[in-house]
Design goal:
Elements lengths: L9 E4 L2 E3 L2 E3 L4 E2 L3 E2 L4 E3 L2 E5 L2 E5 L7 H9 L7 E6 L4 H4 L2 H7 L4 E5 L2 H9 L8 E4 L4 E3 L4 E6 L9 E5 L4 E5 L20 H12 L3 H11 L6 E4 L9 H12 L11 E7 L5 H14 L4 E7 L9 H6 L2 E5 L9 H9 L9 E8 L4 H12 L9 E4 L4 H19 L16
Parallel strand pairs: 8-9, 9-10, 10-11, 15-16, 17-18, 17-19, 19-20, 20-21
Antiparallel strand pairs: 1-2, 2-7, 3-6, 4-5, 7-8, 12-13, 13-14, 14-15
Helix pairs in contact: 6-7, 8-12
């Protein structure tokens, strides 16, 4: 029999309750995340001697569940504090109605969340009393202290965590969360959610690895005894293991070889061997420059996911594709689409390819690279059909120039690769 929850709040510690909602039927979150086990919208209350704090709310369509549980532990006129760790709609959907029911409450949120708050409440006009906070700021509830930790980009710019010092409890927002719905709530009682935990990290947190490491610098010294995330199981048993797993996932696992050595990855597909010949010539040119390690990968039959770790640690990326039906080939697009799960902003990017008629693939790849915020210092190299000796020298020179851009030794190098003028 599937476990069920009562309509009342669930006690986590004396005066601390879960007042969230379950969404077991959800199968896709924000369109892109698969949620085979649904999700939870976790919201919390903390009671002090001078009032009650509500930490986050729920998705608007689950507001009735939230208010029913909230009313089981407090009256609305007792609510003095509303903490918003994150203003995405799945956390703030019930906020407008909560403000209407508890008009005396003051809202606490990160500095960057102010714009979101104004946008969220603009249909109603007037803003509530609110206080932007930063790391170290706190709210005294009377015998209970909430302290704020600024953790931007985990996974929105506005995100923060809230620390309940007296209970050693971290209300972590999206950090340490996952989309996994189980009415038993606690990590020592629910089913096996390890896959969901790491899937969630990979798709939401991995692109912001540096921010994860910054957040861990704030969180680890606290040694939380309980982690209460915004989604998924509540981590009351061995919360340090989940913190340690985040550090493992966020710490680079690959090295570039010699200290200071730059890495250039070249990916290609080739219908008749012409784009492959271009790729091999680019490799030869890049390898001729000291301080650059070059790797060449044929994408035919490959799974883009196998390259993500390599891409994350690389300094430069070049993509080669023939033009087929006025476009780059699908494996190139699949690999480019997968790059949204890692931070590639500022890496060097380049495109090349052979074509028969129109040659659009190279320019389309370049546009995508720029859209992903890579630096594209060279104009892409397009060659018609079989490259001759002179054209392969252009490819070799492109490799030289890419390598010199990576090492910062572009003085005296070609400013850009030559491009054949085609009809």
């Amino acid at each position: 029999m599937t476990p069920s929850l009562p309509d009342t709040a669930v006690e986590l510690a004396p005066g601390v309750h879960w007042v969230g909602a379950l969404d077991p039927r959800l199968r896709a979150f924000d369109i892109i995340l698969a949620t085979a086990n649904g999700t939870t919208y976790n919201a919390y209350t903390v009671r002090g001697e001078r009032g009650v704090a509500v930490i986050d709310t729920v998705k608007e369509s689950f507001a009735d569940d939230f208010f029913r549980r909230l009313e089981s532990v407090c009256d609305y006129d007792e609510i003095t504090t509303i903490v918003l760790n994150h203003l995405e709609p799945d956390h703030s959907g019930a906020l407008p109605e909560l403000l209407r029911r508890a008009p005396a409450a003051r809202v606490y949120l990160s500095t960057r969340a102010q714009i979101m708050l104004k946008a969220l409440l603009k249909p109603g006009g007037a803003l509530p009393a609110y206080q932007p906070v930063k790391t170290g700021d706190s709210v005294d509830l009377g015998g209970r202290t909430l302290r704020f930790l600024n953790t931007p980009y985990l996974h929105w710019p506005d995100t923060q965590c809230t620390w309940l010092a007296e209970e050693g409890m971290l209300f972590s927002g999206d950090v340490f969360g996952c989309h996994f719905c189980d009415a038993r709530l606690f990590n020592d009682r629910v089913g096996d959610f390890r896959f969901s935990f790491e899937y969630y990290y990979a798709h939401l947190m991995r692109p912001f690895r540096e921010n994860v490491l910054d957040a861990l610098q704030l969180i680890e010294p606290l040694a939380p005894r309980f982690i209460a995330p915004a989604h998924g199981p509540l981590l009351r048993r061995n919360p340090s293991e989940y913190i340690q797993r985040y550090r493992e996932l966020a710490t680079p696992r690959l090295t570039n070889g010699a200290a200071g050595e730059k890495t250039l990855l070249i990916f290609y597909l080739s219908a008749y061997g012409n784009t492959r010949s271009m790729a091999e010539a680019i490799v030869a040119g890049a390898e001729s420059e000291p301080g650059v390690r070059v790797s060449l990968y044929d994408l035919e039959g490959s799974d883009p996911a196998t390259f993500i770790d390599l891409v994350e640690e690389a300094d430069g990326l070049a993509f080669g594709s023939p033009t087929i039906n006025g476009d780059a080939v699908r494996p190139i697009w699949d690999l480019l689409a997968s790059l949204t799960s890692v931070n590639i902003q500022g890496k060097l990017g380049a495109a090349f390819g052979s074509f028969g008629w129109s040659g659009e693939a190279v320019r389309l790849i370049e546009d995508r690279l720029r859209g992903l915020k890579l630096e594209v210092p060279l104009e892409g190299l397009r060659l018609r059909l079989v490259p001759d000796t002179g054209e392969l020298e252009q490819c070799r020179q492109m490799g030289v120039t890419l390598a010199r851009h990576l090492t910062g030794s572009t003085e005296g190098a070609l400013d850009e690769a030559a491009v054949l003028d085609t009809a």
